[in-house]
Specification:
single chain; 721 residues; alpha+beta; 7-stranded mixed beta sheet; 5-stranded antiparallel beta sheet; 25 strands; globular
């Protein structure tokens, strides 16, 4: 049983009330109250700023940069953790320590709430309305409601759902279509005949109501040698996610649409809901097309679909079946087109008002890029912050970076640095400088000053994005001069977004001239963009570099609408529009990063991505061409960001781009080495599920891989870029 507001110390309640008021005043979208390990949590942006545990220890957020050395030592003693650098204090302390040191702690605490409510907003996925209700009723505080939440959860009823929320068991019905297994055919027929929805996890032999209602506790209790973490999440969703009147879609060669008509029951060791079938197809339908319309959702399990995904399925059904659909199904189409929460409408409207300005902005400057190229560049930057642009000379590799930055707000000083890489760059001193013992001074570089300014700006009240453009990046060996940066970029991010490891600069401590810090933690708002040409004057990239970047190829040239009409230039964005664009691009101040919680949540919603990548990796592993966890994480994070920014037509288009940029660059070598792996990649890009389809599901990846096969036959050697 979690701690309720009535059990909180009164002083802590007053602090929380002030925190909520402050965060709500800064940005009504920024804050939430939820539960973690049975403890109430108040969060702003993606930061936990206040948590009270059952042992009356408190997680309390302050920035150590604002505290004196004496105050830091007090915190270190109270929390029992070793504090290094200017990290955020984010650890458990006794409540008594908090109250004894309230004045100076609150000053630093409120500064961080104000900071994160401005920088990191609108990212919460959960909210406990019952906490606020009790909180307000007991203590008489007027508590605002978060304005942006799509769904508000209640511990007694599971996630709050829209009236037309769809719960979809798709997986085994699609497997039936692909493999024709007898037990799956029988299971589908049973669902239709008995008007029921079953959860098909044979190892789940206990009544799901016997498990705790909270998702975390449920999963912990349900996991066993036969029930994985993913299965346990699916079981919780089946028991506490499904509600009466939810819509059900069975993806099968003869699909079905129904509505949940009763409560969960456990009979004969089977988990089930009664269903009223609204429509049953009387002829075979292209299930692969329906699956693609759904964005490639879970194909062999139990999951949910969003409104837009279900609407896309129905739209495909309308195209294929037309007037054969009954009025009851057409009514559902009508229902799904209304009732969207206002905040979603506003967000979609803002996105559509801003994103289309990117191609117009480029066109007004005489530049031509396809929608896919713009989407790839935008989403790759959102995901990684280190993007390499390859392609033939004159396709606008440098320009896309230079002109993209003009869409974003900038501080008084320039926040874009253009560096031409020189062939004599041999080590990190070309970027980071060095100590000159003859002059007894540190030799600064433009790059070093730039990243320090970016870090300073990131800690300010109004951080913006800072871009470094390394032109002709491979004129020198990237592995030599960029090695330190690569290591730090891959060290991960702390709660504030800064790199966990630092660039380390060596020089005497007693220098009289201006010196940089000995340690530099890279800020989250720093983006590195490299341009490369592949010819006899340049160096090839090692797998280590390709593995750590999103490598984008700009080779498509279309003169149809070139040159662009410069007179029909797009209107300049106002500062307010630039700020809005920055908020979208930076994901409300999160900036690029591999966020494990988002990846886990995305895979839980879309487990087919794990199966797709696993099947490809298993085949490639036979030839030592498989990829690691980093590539998996970055592909999934890319898909999650693409889902949020809405720049791709569907799920498959986003996966096509992600695989093109993260998997294809590995393919380099002779026919003996790369021939068979390329054959595997071509087959996988065409038909990743083995459904026997003719039209490639990943057309760009498929086309490029086929071109590489042809080049391999001619030259006996091939590289992706």
């Amino acid at each position: 049983m979690s701690i309720q507001p009535s059990e909180w110390p009164e002083e802590l309640v007053e602090i929380l009330a002030g925190d909520i008021e402050l965060a709500n005043r800064k940005d009504p979208r920024s804050w939430s109250i939820y539960t973690y390990q049975e403890s109430p949590v108040f969060g702003v942006g993606m930061m936990t700023v206040l948590m009270l545990r059952k042992d009356h220890k408190v997680t309390f957020l302050v920035s150590l940069a604002t505290l004196s050395l004496e105050q830091r030592e007090l915190i270190q003693q109270a929390s029992g953790i070793e504090i290094q650098g200017d990290e955020y204090f984010h650890a458990r302390i006794e409540l008594s320590f908090l109250m004894e040191n309230l004045d100076w702690l609150l000053q630093a605490h409120h500064a961080e709430i104000s900071n994160h409510a401005t920088r990191l907003s609108g990212r919460w996925k959960d909210h406990r309305q019952d906490f606020l209700v009790e909180f307000a009723s007991i203590f008489g505080h007027v508590i605002p409601s978060p304005q942006y939440l799509d769904r508000v959860s209640n511990p007694d009823s599971g996630p709050q759902r829209y009236s037309s929320q769809i719960v979809v068991p798709t997986g085994y019905w699609q497997q039936t279509f692909a493999n024709g297994k007898e037990d799956e055919v029988a299971e589908y027929n049973r669902c239709v005949k008995e008007s029921k929805l079953f959860l098909r996890i044979p190892e789940a032999k206990e009544n799901l109501t016997d498990y705790p209602k909270g998702r975390t506790d449920f999963v912990s209790a349900a996991k066993s040698p036969g029930i994985s973490n993913g299965y346990a999440h699916r079981m919780w969703l089946f028991r506490y996610g499904v509600q009466v009147n939810d819509l059900v879609f069975l993806l099968h060669s003869q699909p079905a649409i129904g509505r949940i008509s009763g409560d969960y029951s456990f009979e004969n060791e089977e988990h089930q809901y009664p269903v009223d079938w609204i429509w049953l197809a009387d002829a075979n339908i292209d299930a692969g097309r329906l699956r693609k319309a759904a964005g490639g959702k879970n194909l062999w399990g139990f999951t949910t679909l969003e409104r837009n995904e279900f609407s896309a399925i129905l739209a495909s059904l309308l195209e294929m079946v037309g007037e054969d659909l009954p009025q009851s199904v057409l009514d559902i189409v009508t229902d799904l087109s209304i009732g969207t929460p206002q905040n979603s409408i506003d967000l979609a409207a803002n996105m559509k008002a801003t994103i289309p300005s990117i191609p117009a902005h480029f066109a007004s400057n005489g530049l031509t890029y396809s929608d896919t190229q713009i989407a790839d560049f935008y989403t790759a930057l959102q995901t990684k912050g280190f993007v390499v642009l390859s392609g033939i000379s004159g396709t606008g590799k440098s320009k896309i970076a230079q002109y993209f930055t003009k869409l974003l707000p900038s501080p008084v000083e320039p926040n874009t640095l253009f560096l031409s890489v020189r062939p004599d760059w041999r080590d990190s001193t070309s970027l980071l400088g060095y100590y000159n013992p003859l002059l007894e001074a540190y030799e600064w570089t433009e790059f070093l000053r730039f990243i320090l300014k970016a870090a300073e700006n990131c800690r300010s009240e109004n951080p913006v994005a800072w871009f470094v453009i390394l032109d002709e990046m491979n004129l020198a060996h990237v592995e030599y001069y960029f090695a330190d940066m690569l290591s730090v970029l891959e060290s991960g991010r702390d709660d504030s977004g800064f790199s966990r490891e630092s660039l380390r600069l060596t020089f005497p401590d007693d220098l009289a001239n201006e010196v940089p810090p000995h340690q530099i933690f890279l800020p989250p708002n720093l983006y590195i963009i490299g341009t490369v040409n592949m010819d006899e004057t340049t160096h090839a990239f090692s797998p280590k570099v390709l593995d750590r970047a999103f490598t984008m190829e700009l080779t498509d040239v279309d003169f149809t609408n070139y040159p662009t009409n410069l007179e029909a230039s797009a209107d300049e964005l106002t500062e307010a529009q630039k700020e809005a664009f920055l908020a979208q691009f930076s994901q409300q101040g999160l900036y690029p990063g591999i966020r494990k919680d988002e990846i886990a949540a995305y895979v839980a919603r879309n487990p087919q991505i794990r199966e797709l990548l696993q099947s490809l990796n298993t085949m490639l592993a036979q030839h030592r061409f498989h990829f690691g966890y980093r590539v998996f994480d970055e592909i999934v994070q890319f898909l999650s960001n693409a889902e949020e920014n809405g720049m791709y037509d569907d799920w498959w288009a986003a996966l096509d781009s992600a695989a093109y940029m993260k998997i294809l660059p590995k393919f380099s070598g002779s026919e003996a080495r790369v021939g068979k792996p390329l054959e595997i990649l071509v087959a996988w890009a065409n038909d990743p599920f083995g459904d026997g389809i003719d039209t490639p599901l990943l057309p760009r990846l498929h086309q490029r891989a086929v071109q590489m096969q042809e080049q391999l036959q001619i030259d006996g050697f091939v590289t992706a870029f």
